[in-house]
Amino acid sequence: PYYVDMNQNLFLQASLHSSDQNLTVFVDTCVASPSSSDFRTLVYELTKSGCASDPSYALFPSPRGDVARFGFSAFSFANRFPSVFLRCELLLCRYHDFSSRCYQGCVRRVRRNADS
């Protein structure tokens, strides 16, 4: 466990350990839950499809493509739960493949009218 105060800035880093130097990592979706085994009943989205859902969520420059850095402000689930657990989905893409999902960044889905 990592103990923090409310609204303290948290900085996280995900590193890819691979002999393939032509891969890059991208933070696609991160959700928080008060339970380490249930990420469906009560969740809070930090980012979805590469788009920030929480106003404090931010991506930070990384020294290499195989490292993703991000952060957000610490929060709790209405003071009823003592812990917050994170689950993040990361994407791996070919380095410098600008048509890959990793290089598209935030992708918002466009909703269509039911009549069309």
Summarize this structure briefly.
Keywords: Disulfide bond, Signal. By secondary structure, the chain is an all-beta fold.
Could you name the key traits of this structure?
about 120 residues; mainly beta; Immunoglobulin-like; four-stranded antiparallel β-sheet; three-stranded antiparallel β-sheet; about 0% helix; globular
Write structural notes for this entry.
Residues 1-109 form the ZP domain. A 4-stranded antiparallel β-sheet has the order 4-3-2-7, with no helix packed on it. The chain has strands at 9-15, 23-33, 44-48, 51-52, 58-60, 67-73, 85-94. The model has no long low-confidence stretch (mean pLDDT 90). The chain has one domain (9-96): Sandwich (Immunoglobulin-like), CATH 2.60.40.4100. It has 116 residues and is mainly beta.
Order of helices and strands: EEEEEEE
CATH topology: Immunoglobulin-like
Which stretches are poorly predicted, pLDDT < 50 over at least 5 residues? none
Number of domains: 1
What name goes with the CATH superfamily? Answer: Zona pellucida, ZP-C domain
- Tell me the radius of gyration: 16 Å
Main beta sheet, described?
4 strands, antiparallel
| Order of strands, widest sheet | 4-3-2-7
Distance between the termini: 50 Å
The count of helical stretches stands at: 0
Counted beta strands: 7
